[in-house]
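re: that complex we talked abt at group meeting.

here r the seqs, copy pasted straight from the sheet so there may be weird spacing, ignore it
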Amino acid sequence: MKPLQALRAYARGPWREDLVAAAVVSVLLIPQSLAYALLAGLPAEVGIYASLLPLLAYALLGSSPYLGVGPVAIVALMVAQATAAAPAGYSASQAALVLAAESALLMAAAAALRLDALAALMSVPVLHGFETGATLAIALSQLPALLGSPAQGSELPALLASAAGSGWRWHAPTLGFGLAAVALLLLGRRLLGGLWARLAPLIVLLLTLGVAWAVQAQGLGVPLVGALPALHPRLQWPPLDPALWLALLPGALLIALIAYVSSLVVAEALARRRGERVDPRRELMGLAGANLAAAFSAGMPVAGSFSRSALLYDAGSRSRMSSVMAALLMGAAALSLAPALAWLPRSVLAATILVAVLSGLQWRPYLEAWRYARAEGLLMLAVTLLVLNVSVAAALGLGVLGSIALLLQRTARPHVALVGRVPGTEHYRNVDRHEVEILPEVMGLRIDESLLFTNARSLADVVQAQLTQHPGTRRVVLQMSPVNGIDYSGLEALRELHESLRRQGLRLDLSELKGPVLDRLRAAGWERWFQGQVHLSHHQGMTAGQAQDWVSP
Amino acid sequence: MKPLQALRAYARGPWREDLVAAAVVSVLLIPQSLAYALLAGLPAEVGIYASLLPLLAYALLGSSPYLGVGPVAIVALMVAQATAAAPAGYSASQAALVLAAESALLMAAAAALRLDALAALMSVPVLHGFETGATLAIALSQLPALLGSPAQGSELPALLASAAGSGWRWHAPTLGFGLAAVALLLLGRRLLGGLWARLAPLIVLLLTLGVAWAVQAQGLGVPLVGALPALHPRLQWPPLDPALWLALLPGALLIALIAYVSSLVVAEALARRRGERVDPRRELMGLAGANLAAAFSAGMPVAGSFSRSALLYDAGSRSRMSSVMAALLMGAAALSLAPALAWLPRSVLAATILVAVLSGLQWRPYLEAWRYARAEGLLMLAVTLLVLNVSVAAALGLGVLGSIALLLQRTARPHVALVGRVPGTEHYRNVDRHEVEILPEVMGLRIDESLLFTNARSLADVVQAQLTQHPGTRRVVLQMSPVNGIDYSGLEALRELHESLRRQGLRLDLSELKGPVLDRLRAAGWERWFQGQVHLSHHQGMTAGQAQDWVSP
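got the structure back, here u go
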């Protein structure tokens, strides 16, 4: 379909739904954008800038019709940690621009090199553990603003030290505004349904803003958001000092990874609701474009946000045009509403963040993962604790390494089953678990793993152990249906097993070898040493040229 | 069997074979021990010390009756590189003692923590690539001694720079001795068989030693081994400076890994010849004991050597007592023969090392690995080049990371097959590869991989893609025989697939679930959300309550 035709089809069709969705989303996003910019340690208006041009860039390059891109809480937390690495002389805003630019370039490079599959390194335990930890860290970082305390920090030790350093001070009127906002938000969430529930934060903001103005809260010492500088969106280069770029690179790498993976998870979850699919590479391109746009328009690193996306989805978005409209509407709204926002108490903004992020907390996965696999449950917990007490980098590092270690351990110790025939069928199962019958001279073995370097050294050992228990064996048939691949180490192990059995006067046959596996063996010229037979089914392998004197094992 | 009884049984039985083996091995090992000590950049007599007490310790703690423990070429090369990290003020000999002590402690810790399985990280491509690279590096390091050049180094760039710095000098009489030795060794290898071939190096050494004495080679400027200091084996603590231990720890870690894995490979290869098995943990204990003994008796890090072990095996060793006898005999021989060895030209010693290590080179695995799996062939080559041009640490690092990356890639992109029935059987195979028949309303799918975090995100996608091609489907039966495990991420993916199919009005059934996998699913309470059926065989799953109107796909 040509662009013009596409535009015409769009004008006839879903634009109305998109416009409604955009209008709803744009007003809701203004306070959220301010709040996440403050969370990242940046001036509040940066959040507005990051919600304009990046949305247009994503709409142009991305693929999901529902993904709402903009400042998100977890990335904001990571920006706050990462900008600390900037050399002296650079402001946090400048560092944030470089982080956005670097993340964008890393994502574009990953898309070009087809590294989108690296997202798979974030296992569910790592991702959930990380998101929970980050959410708690975000909540912690908002406590001082809610309490009117001068303390700051998002990791537990830093926050406690800072609070102790300031003599555990707090400010009653500030806390009053904050608690009132929390109460109203929770009430709204409970009493209202559907879109009204989503509008509740806006209503609460307007309400508290009015009260703050009426009681002249500034005079009571309540910190307010304050007047935003006049907004004038403009394009400009981020700082180009190599030393600055180098210092921020590790942080940018983590931000790119988390921004991509968390956006992908959101896009996939929403696509799945309609039986649709997501193109991971296009998502990567879309996010790269959005972050590049942020870097050039005085913004901060952005990602797909679950709350923004759910808003778009629930408000009836049909295409990525709704993001474009939202950006335009929001630009207009921000220009006109910004002066009023100056009266908003900071503790109210902290309250909206607290309620928003804490409502997403899920503890059930910890219990489920623990029940399903102790090690994975522990990994999830460890990642959470590291985010809270050490740093995002340490948590993700341990998480990825831990996941890989568990995978290696899994392939290293394969389950081995002596299999026999389920009577009256051609189906073979583990003799220890099912009522089956075996042939005394033919040993059917199933090794439940691909033959890989992690287990190659134990293959001959495992078979030898079974042979010691069944001295009458004259032929061994390996059922290869669980063997999904054989690497070069596995090939050597198979050759050694074949040789070891041949020395003992035993023949090694294989059955149910998968097509791709057999292709590779043939290409490597295995017929030069392999003297056994390859049978299509294990039943054929067991009964080939054999008297069928089945016995119980 | 009690110790005394065991000793009596031994006195009646295999002691004669062991004594013969020990006598042969002990004389052969003296020059080799000197040579490897020099290769490690240590005084020659250190090689003798490392061949005495460590053998006794291994005999006490190890398990293999054939493994010959002592100084080996590859470990000597690693010691030469590692001792460079010692702080100023410590001799290479002192650093070598600390390396031996640290390797021993690391091995003992690994045995205690049951980390012997970490040996699996060394895949065949990495191990072969490393051994070939190390062998070439050893050969390179011997060239200056053979040529009578003052150059030194084992990595190519360092050696070339050093040779250029010395003006490419060489010394004709020294080279003459060296080339004569090489020629005689190659000739002996070609003309002699069996044990005589193994004795050839000793004969060549005695011969050239005699000539060097007769022509007074020292006067010609030929570097000789020189008088060894009087040997007096003694026990003493290695230096205990924490700074020294910390500086050498990375080197010791690599030495422990390589010493263990290369010893294990030798022990397993020899055990396999007799259908016996090796206990990896006891090997680890044995090597730990041997290295600790080396550290306390003025030795150097030791490992199981293929040439020593093959000698013991061929000479008819029956038990680890032969190692004990060899140590005793060698101690006696070294005391009496040492003065004569002073006349041995160093170029002859270099020649014996060159011929010994180069004869073990195998190029065929590179070709085989390349043919079988490009990536693994490239990895093997890259590891070799890194050993030669950069360092042992870089090569092993890249090798282990590369192997893991290939494993992740393998599990990340599972092969998926639509399966149909082989007519007249209950056996199901890929419709693209076999003449099979299918049921139009029941889709049988086989996903050839465990459900793991690396592929969890693509499971629903893959099934959805198949459904798009077969719109008439009303039930999906996943054949789970290739699924050897499901981690927590895989469990979530299965739940999401189930949910996504349910939304589309499709039922998800599973067949041929393995016992251990089903146990885990049940323990996690999957019956709370799983509404399909689990069938024993895929045939039962396909035909359950179904009109059997088989058609060709």
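couple things i noticed - Residues 22 and 325 of chain B are 6 Å apart (CA to CA). Chain B has 23 helices and eight strands.
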